[in-house]
């Protein structure tokens, strides 16, 4: 058989292989490697067991708080966690460390997050000056409730002539019929967000915001997840921002009494309720418990009692005069997120819960052991808000099942669900959790205002059962989750 003819490349390759094998054989590399492998297989080591000392700490198996029957951890992120505020027109003072769970009063000076004492004294003087004017014009609120389309409406410093809205008919596919559709009120389209009315007043996620019920000055109080409460005097010539830390857990409630604005109640997830007394210049401890306080409210005609959701479905009525609980019930299977009282009858109360229900109660007929509801509104997922309308004739509920419920009627027998995307979840682009949406009423029963994930405010019409428009502004730098309608109800 004739030998194959090799190319120049193949011939050089064979020569290199032959030369390398001769070098390996001369160095005896393969024999040494085989001998080392044989020794490694035959050699063994005897390991003597080492007795562990009896004083060694035993291994603890980690168990979640839920399996141990304990409330969730409310510490959250580190206290120095803060977003980037370079693009905001106003900033906040740095956080001041505060020992957790101080069982006793805390002076406003010690709770103040700032190096200078002068701003703290300025806030105390401002609150005391507002508190002197305790006679708020209640008739303004009454006029707003009773006005009709032929009257004038007051929005801030602007008076807008209202008129009969044009009506047209559109086909509703779900109903299979034509329905009357009213165009939006002109004042909705004229609303504007000015740069001077935007400020970053508090670090971290805001849990709730409250307006001072005063028509003479615009003052705001807001609480975050770190236990801070910030006050912002919008009308101040300076930044007007004052930051305090009276709590060691997320703020769950802020109460500003209309006839005693120098005394402000606040609650947190750590089970504390404190009273900020501007006259005494301290945050006094009103109530403490081992359970979590999720919500805080008060009857309009009973300033001596506090209503707060405690633990899993519990509602506690606390008498601030005696420092004791006067009544307590278990109303839900899970935490109570909001407590609302009817403006026309303060004995009618609404609560909502993570168990997926919102309930209307009559305090006069609630038994101690098994209270019965006047009406139960059921959602498919957690309900994060339930608020009565200004007239008291309707109840608006906001749920994670992407619906805003409207319950109305003489006995609240009619419930309609209006679709709205309420799923906040996690804002992945910035790695921050967003507070749940809570729809609130305007100054009458015409509209419900609720935020959306596109940094806008959706306006829902209960009569039309749909979103009629969205308020947007380039000044809106964050997703609006929590609203307060105190100034709107006062006509300011």
From TrEMBL:
Official protein name in the record: Uncharacterized protein
Segment forming the signal sequence: none
Biased composition regions of type Basic residues, renumbered to the chain: 38-52
Alphabetical UniProt keywords: DNA damage, DNA-binding, Repeat, WD repeat
Pfam annotation, one family: WD40
InterPro entries: WD40/YVTN_repeat-like_dom_sf, WD40_repeat_CS, WD40_repeat_dom_sf, WD40_rpt, WD_repeat_DNA-damage-binding
Transmembrane domains' residue ranges: none
Family statement: Belongs to the WD repeat DDB2/WDR76 family.
Region (Disordered) residue spans: 35-56
Start-end of each WD repeat: 329-371
Species classification: Eukaryota, Viridiplantae, Streptophyta, Embryophyta, Tracheophyta
